[in-house]
Amino acid sequence: MNDFLKWLLFIGGSILAYFEPLNAVLTLVMALFVLDFITGIAKSVRLGEAIKSAKLKWSLYKLTVYLGTMALTFFICGSMNLSKDTGVSIVNIEAWFVVYIEGLSIIENLQKIKDNKYLQFIHYLMAVEFLRKFSILSDFIKNKEK
Questions:
Q1: How far is CA 95 from CA 14, 59, 80, 83, 116, in A?
Q2: Are 95 and 28 in contact (CB under 8 A)?
Q3: What is the pLDDT of residue 132?
Q4: 3 state DSSP class of 49
Q5: DSSP state letter for 2
Q6: Cα–Cα distances in angstroms (integers) from residue 136 to residues 26, 60, 123, 131, 142, in the given order
Q7: Domain extents for the chain?
Q8: From the centroid of its chain, how far is CA 59?
Q9: Alpha helices, DSSP H only, in the chain?
Q10: Mean pLDDT of 83-93
């Protein structure tokens, strides 16, 4: 094995060890990202749309922002000498935000692949009823519509 590959494996292992407390949440985010990616491609194929490179790049940018934000948050919490539990809790909040966004995108893609009442109901619950529980979001949406 050449030195560069050994160095790369060492760095990768170090990063994985540092983020070990976040394995479950990062696995969930990655799984939903991949599922959104697959359903997005399936939707494009079903609708006869061309699969554009710009959309694929946008997906990679989106993943980079998600994971970068979580990594930066965890690192900053460690730099501020906060407990690892505090950092994990904050990253979990960020991760659930990502789960909501990606879950909603997956439901929208599935609706366009095969529209049925169950998917419409799930989308309604996620996109409308869930947001009504947060009055600040409802106010934002109302102001944006004006």
A1: 22, 17, 21, 19, 29
A2: yes
A3: 74
A4: coil
A5: -
A6: 28, 30, 20, 9, 10
A7: 22-115
A8: 10
A9: 3-18, 23-47, 53-79, 84-113, 117-124, 130-132, 135-145
A10: 87
